[in-house]
Each structure stands twice: as C-alpha cells, then as structure tokens.
Write a structure and sequence with these properties.
The two termini are 29 Å apart. The chain has an eight-stranded antiparallel beta sheet, covered by helices on one side. It has 373 residues and is α+β, with helices and mostly antiparallel strands. α4 packs across α6. A hairpin with a 2-residue loop joins β13 and β14. It is built from ten helices and 17 strands. It has two domains: 200 residues, Cupin (Jelly Rolls, Sandwich); 133 residues, 3-Layer(aba) Sandwich (Malonyl-Coenzyme A Acyl Carrier Protein, domain 2). The chain is 27% helix and 23% strand. The protein binds succinic acid (SIN) and cobalt (II) ion.
Length: 373
C-alpha cells in the first residue's frame, strides 16, 4: 500500500499497526494548504436545521453550558469562549463527504461521521475523553491541543457535558490549518481555540457489545419460530399451588433451548444494524422522479452513484443498504460489490447490469438512496 501524506508519510498498514487504537500521532500538514470546506455562515445555517445534530457549548469560568440544536440564535461572533459542534456534515455536503472518503482505508463499518466545530477565541469543549478513535483536522485558525495518557478518567459532577475532573496535560501542540492529530479511544484531551477556529473531527463507531447483543435478540425475535403450546397431560395435584414446578421449567427450558442461531444470522443482523442510517437522517427524494425507462436510459449513459447518506455494506452473499438486506445473485455480485466499494458505477457497468439490479436501482433512486452521476 502507498505511503499517504494524510498519515504523515506512513502507509495505512504502518499507521494501523503502530498507532491505531494505541497511541496519538501528530501529523503536520496532513493536507497541505487545506482550506475550510464550509464557511462559518454555512455551519451556522446547518445548526438551524432540525435534520442536523448540533450543540452549542460555552463556558464562563468553571461553569459550562450546553444547548442542543436546532439553534436559532447564536452568541455574537465577537464574544469569546463559545463553540458550535455540527455532527454528520458529510451527510449534507459533497466536499465533506469526499474528505471522509479519504479515510476509507478504515472500513465503512467503522467510519462514523465528520463533525465540524466552530469556536471563537478561547472556545472548546473542555478536557474530556472520547470512547472512539478520532482524527482532528485543523481547518481554520489555530487550536492548542493538550493531551494526556492519564488513567484517571473521573468526570466532574453536575456538568452538562463530560469534563475530566483532574486533567493533567502531558503534551501540547498548536495545530494550524492542514495539521491533524489522531487520538485513540480514552485518551484525555483538551482543545482550546487560540483564535477563531474550525476543527474537523473524523469519528469512528465501535458499538458496545451490550448494544449489539440487545439488537441481535430483537432481530431474532422478529424471525424466531417456536411451534406448539405448553401441555401437561401428566399433571399431578399441586401441594404448593404457588410454586412453578420443576417439570414446567424443564419443558419450557427444553423448548427455548431449541432456538439456534448461526454465523449467517449474525452476519445479517450486523449488516442491517451497521447500515441503518441514524434516526435524524431523511433521504432527499428526487423532486420530479423520472419514469423508469427514462431513468434507465440516463443511468446507462451517465452511470450512477450512491447518495451521500446511503450506507452500503456486504458480507458473503448478503448486501446491506440502509438497514435492509438483499441476497446477492451470482450474476449481480460484481456490479453490486463494485457499487458498494467505489460508491459509483460507470455507464458501462450499468449497461451490463441484470434486470434485477436495474429494478433495484430504480427503486433506490425513487427512495433517494441512489442518484445519477
Ligand atoms: C472540538 O472540535 O472542539 C472538539 C473535538 C473533540 O475534542 O473531540
Ligand atoms: Co474529543
């Protein structure tokens, strides 16, 4: 694999082996000459939308305040010490989406979103730790990061956000536009804007096993089939009528223990779960949808691409799109895996796709999952 400037000249293998999930990495000029992809006004406008997650954080002395979006009113730009966080910018902006794609040496199942923070001088979210890996790319202005491998991760009480009670900075870096800091999960950090500043966080997802287990049992509940009904032709008179008999428990246990699940069931659950869009996501439907023939004609001459908000994953014979699963037919496999991996299909590839695939494309187009190139 190639060395990447984005990783300070490391190959993805070297980065993953030496730093990922292990230790921080400061990369000066990861993206040389980087210019912000969105203006301050663009961000403030996004924070007003109800289909965008945003938070406003400000501090006066030791008091922190947090308000959740949609945010109609913002503190004055001239006021120091506040910060606006806008989540999932990649879902709404092509340039932000393209930037996220440059981190696809990490699989889509692990990539979460691109968050942008805007801060006035002195702004920040306080010393804290995150449960996920993160790349912090400086987009505008300067931010001073203090970081620490400290084990004491106790949180200050009574705060509207997670603030470390005893933050002891061990290292300090000032990031300029284009610089990037990678931090593994649970690494304490505190970023303070030295002037008006914007920082892009490329964040990852790592579901808790508890969450996965609950989700899986829910998934199984939808498909489980346990025939029959409890019966006891051998019932004996009850001397302790309130007691559940051992015989009843044995029978019910043996029926419940017949429930089996396979690796394939887990694959389907995982694919549906990980490809499910967040609850705030609404797909943009085509304003005036083309009729099928017209759409197929255009697709065969221009090609198609996945909408920014579409999550597409696959495993074995299963394809997962936005929480739904499909069985991959042998003849469609190459085209659909190419679409999932590259997020685009050329005109030629669309031309040779089967009728089933074209039917699916048209349905996805109507749902806003897929668009013409
Ligand atoms: C920020 O950009 O201000 C906060 C990002 C973080 O610390 O995770
Ligand atoms: Co953080």
């Amino acid at each position: 694999m190639k060395k990447l400037a984005l990783l300070g000249g490391l190959t993805p293998q070297q980065f993953l082996r030496e730093y990922w999930h292990k230790k921080p990495l400061l990369i000066r000029q990861a993206i040389p000459g980087f210019q912000p992809l969105l203006s301050r006004e663009d961000l403030l406008a996004m924070a007003r939308r109800d289909d965008v997650e945003s938070r406003l954080i400000s501090r006066s002395g030791k008091r922190w305040q947090m308000a959740k979006g949609p945010l109609e009113v913002m503190p004055a730009i001239g006021k120091k010490g506040w910060t606006l966080l806008v989540q999932g910018v990649n879902l709404h902006d092509d340039a932000a989406d393209t930037l996220m794609q440059s981190f696809r040496f990490i699989p889509d199942a692990r990539l979460d979103d691109l968050m942008i923070s805007y801060a006035t001088e002195g702004g920040g979210v306080g010393p804290h730790f995150d449960s996920y890996d993160v790349f912090l790319l400086q987009a505008h202005g300067r931010r001073r990061w203090q970081i620490s491998a400290q084990k004491d991760l106790s949180l200050a009480e009574g705060m509207p956000l997670k603030i470390l009670e005893n933050f002891q900075a061990e290292q300090e870096y000032v990031l300029e536009p284009g610089d990037m800091l990678y931090l593994p999960p649970h690494y304490a950090h505190d970023g303070v804007a030295l002037d008006e500043c914007m920082t892009y966080s490329i964040g990852f997802r790592a579901p808790a096993y508890q969450e996965l287990a609950e989700g899986f049992l829910q998934f199984m509940a939808d498909s489980v089939e346990v025939p029959g009904r409890y019966a006891d032709p051998d019932l004996a008179p009850a001397s302790r009528p309130a007691e559940i008999s051992a015989a009843m428990l044995d029978r019910v246990s043996s029926e419940i223990n017949r429930i089996r699940f396979t690796r394939d069931d887990i694959a389907i659950f995982l694919g549906e779960y990980l490809s499910e869009p967040k609850p705030t996501v609404f797909f943009d439907l085509p304003a005036r949808p083309m009729r099928k023939e017209k759409f197929l004609q255009s697709a065969a001459s221009r090609g198609v691409r996945l909408a920014r908000k579409t999550r597409m994953l696959y495993r074995g014979k299963h394809l997962f799109v936005n929480g739904d699963s499909f069985t991959l037919q042998r003849q469609d496999r190459d085209a659909l895996l190419a679409l999932a991996d590259h997020r685009v299909l050329s005109a030629e590839e669309v031309e040779t796709a089967s009728a089933d695939v074209l039917d699916a494309f048209y349905a996805w187009y109507q749902d806003g999952w897929l668009v013409l190139r």
